[in-house]
Design the sequence.
DNA sequence: CTGACTTTGTGCGCGCGTTCACAAGCGCGT
DNA sequence: ACGCGCTTGTGAACGCGCGCACAAAGTCAG
């Protein structure tokens, strides 16, 4: 959200009919997509915004507004065609031509990510594993052979997504390597603030941060109930 | 952010001087805390908002406003006292009395989370591992013995945080178990929409969603550069 | 063919979060 | 002791996103 937002608004072509889907909407599209897959396997041909919103855990108005941002593909009085909507969202997310995903760092977390089946849920899957530790090179994890990080330029193709699962100390170095190899979308699991040049999208997932946020809420609730008991 | 926000505003005691720290600020406090630890180890006694903001990857104005929400602990003309600020933020996050963290599901991801050192970075650490698979019970991972999920009520104490790292199909069931045992803060890694009763805070981390968001940005950038090349 | 019901699409108001810019406050050099 | 420069804290404006509520639109029954 920090440097990526300013890259998002850097365009306004006159012939462009769709005015750049809002970031908040993009973040929910994968949720809709997953809910749609479940509904499709249950045999539903169409869904109302109400039902889909329920399945995705959002409000129905929000859902309709989100979908309206990528064009109107619903039929009034009926709802949305499930398969059609799946195609539209997949197209919007760019999931039809699977861009390769390169994971750097096969420690505990990297191993788990490589073997995490949830990635492949109709979408993206990891294509290459890299590590700086030569003793790990050659190891086969989840059907993929670990390569050395020096070979990174050879395994990265244009449009690749890089995933950093290294210790924090090595994260910036690996990040620079990825950027140098042409990667413009990076997902960082290391607990470090990374700096990337403009034009590179960077998202971070910090597990300890999530726990600390929950700790805050727990702390607040405890203080509240204590205050309530005193009063 | 969805059902938790309405629980947040359910309080307005007259004597309360600090009007409930905004959610967005809470999400950044762990970042500041980590940056402060690094600065402290570098020997810094004080930090200016500019320097700390740089280290945390945010704007300096935002940082100051965030810190102002938990009382004014800076000295004008000098900056913030590092150790004092660490204490203040830790107190706000409730990190001094370490509430226990219970992890359910020791598959690939659960194993990685258990062994993930990043958790213990001056804050929270996982205290118990549970699984529904009896063949895994008794196994020792990262110094902890895996217990059966039926023993959950015994290992959960008031104020515990629950972490769900099970397959999606079991997530709701485990969630209900946690809630039934008195857990009111849950972190969900399973790719499923969970429903919890009011008063329970639920955060979710979905790895495939993150990748799909990046895929969208990559797709958009590719489309843009293609359009630019054509024009 | 018509009318009534269902569901989408969206215009508007509101609240939150971010940013700018500046006044207030504190230390320090002289 | 006194002003000078640095940094904090905050008031105000802006923009985004959310939710409500309704009109447009399409389907289905008769």
Sequence:
């Amino acid at each position: 959200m920090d440097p990526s937002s300013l890259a998002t608004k850097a365009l306004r072509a006159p012939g462009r009919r769709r005015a750049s889907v809002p970031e908040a909407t993009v973040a929910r599209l994968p949720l809709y997509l997953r809910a749609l897959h479940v509904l499709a396997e249950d045999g539903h041909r169409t869904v109302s915004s109400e039902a889909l919103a329920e399945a995705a855990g959002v409000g129905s108005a929000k859902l309709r507004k989100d979908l309206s941002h990528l064009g109107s593909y619903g039929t009034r009085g009926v709802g949305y065609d499930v398969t059609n909507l799946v195609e539209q969202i997949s197209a919007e997310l760019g999931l039809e031509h699977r861009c390769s995903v390169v994971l750097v760092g096969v420690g505990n977390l990297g191993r788990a990510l490589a073997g995490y089946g949830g990635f492949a849920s109709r979408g993206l899957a990891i294509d290459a594993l890299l590590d700086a530790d030569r003793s790990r090179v050659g190891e086969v994890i989840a059907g993929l052979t670990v390569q050395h990080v020096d070979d990174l330029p050879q395994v990265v193709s244009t449009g690749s997504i890089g995933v950093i699962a290294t210790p924090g100390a090595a994260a910036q170095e690996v990040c620079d390597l990825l950027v140098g190899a042409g990667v413009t979308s990076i997902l960082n699991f290391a607990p470090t603030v990374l700096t990337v040049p403009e034009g590179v999208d960077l998202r971070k997932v910090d597990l300890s941060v999530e726990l600390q946020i929950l700790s805050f809420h727990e702390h607040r609730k405890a203080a509240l109930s204590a205050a309530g008991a005193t009063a």
User: Anything to note?
Assistant: Residues 33 and 117 of chain B are 17 Å apart (CA to CA). The two ends of chain B are 42 Å apart (CA to CA). Chain B touches chain A through 68 residues (CB under 8 Å).
